[in-house]
Amino acid sequence: MAERFYITDYLTYLEVELGLSSNTIEAYLHNVNRYISYLSDHSITNPGKSEKSIVLDFISHLRSQGLTVNSVARNFSAIRSYHLFLNRERITENDPTETIELLSLHRKLPDVLSIDEIIRLIEIPDTADPLGLRDHAMLEFAYATGVRVSELISITIQNILFDENLVRITGKGSKERIVPLGETAKKSVVKYMREIRITLAGQKSKDVLFLNRRGTPLTRMGFWKILRKYVIMAGITKHTSPHTIRHSYATHLLEGGADIRVVQELLGHANIATTEIYTHIDREYIKEVHRTFHPRA
Predict the structure, then answer these.
(1) Is 278 a catalytic residue?
(2) In terms of domains, do 119 and 83 share one?
(3) What is the SS3 string spanning the chain?
(4) Residue 108 near residue 213 (C-beta atoms within 8 A)
(5) Which of 128, 168, 179, 210 has the fewest CB atoms within 10 Å, measured from its CB?
(6) Active-site position among 88, 246, 247, 252
(7) Model confidence over 78-105: pLDDT tens digits?
């Protein structure tokens, strides 16, 4: 049995890819381990063998234990994220939770950096240092494109269309999308490639754009550590994960007047409902402006 159904890899996904808090991660792991135990008790030793009917049976089992509607919904949220992780990592071929709808909980809006905070973060690396120049280019690229961290660390040089200022990104489900690469980010990437990457690259580099000091592609955890260092240096006190840059990218576009369907395409969301959470952030911003400046608010 693959290390109790890949729970260690799932933990890394929650920490690095989603940037969840330690309390949320603990709750997710507790709920997913309970689900895994249920599968094992029913002689299912491979999560790819789970089906929609089994997930629904598990939900019924939770209800029979006296769990509240909210507790059941939280359990299901963890199970859904677990199967999404398994599916996107190609560990399984199906997602049995995909067509299941439960009463959703109020979604916590993701943390977002202000434009000033993003600029501070991007400009904090010491570009006189070779790795600092790489980090500056990497942060510029992440904010310019809104990529997921898994996409950032796997982007290849051949997928950057420098003449057209575009990037070809392969996202979830091998779905390809094209996003613009701004002139500022392009210049930073070109400078990094000409001055630093050429000295880092080796046989194991392949065509991957961003490399570590050993000349191999960065890992998710490697990027998280780099980001965390600069967040502290920039004096940013908000909870900031790799996904925060993506959240900020989407929010700043919408606040600037971008159409939500364009943002959906740029983010690579299959369902516009996923993108709509950023309109809630936008509304919160509008309300905050109203509270701040309206004389009778």
Answers:
(1) yes
(2) no
(3) CCHHHHHHHHHHHHHHHCCCCHHHHHHHHHHHHHHHHHHHHCCCCCHHHCCHHHHHHHHHHHHHCCCCHHHHHHHHHHHHHHHHHHHHCCCCCCCCCCCCCCCCCCCCCCCCCCHHHHHHHHHCCCCCCHHHHHHHHHHHHHHHHCCCHHHHCCCEHHHEEHHHCEEEEECHHHCEEEEECCHHHHHHHHHHHHHHHHHHCCCCCCCECCECCCCCECCHHHHHHHHHHHHHHCCCCCCCCHHHHHHHHHHHHHHCCCCHHHHHHHHCCCCHHHHCHHHHHHHHHHHHHHHHHCCCC
(4) no
(5) 128
(6) 246
(7) 999 999 999 888 899 888 988 887 644 4
Residue 93 lies in a domain: no
Does the model's pTM come out above 0.85?
no
Claim to verify: residue 121 and residue 70 sit in the same structural domain: no
Residue 287 is among the residues annotated as catalytic for this protein = no
- For the question of residue 172 being annotated catalytic, the response is yes
Residues 204 and 160 in one domain: yes
Which is the catalytic residue, given 61, 168, 172, 177? 172
**Catalytic member of 134, 148, 186, 247:** 148
State the residue range of the domain holding 24: 3-88
pLDDT digits (tens, 9 = 90+) for 131-147: 999 999 999 999 999 99
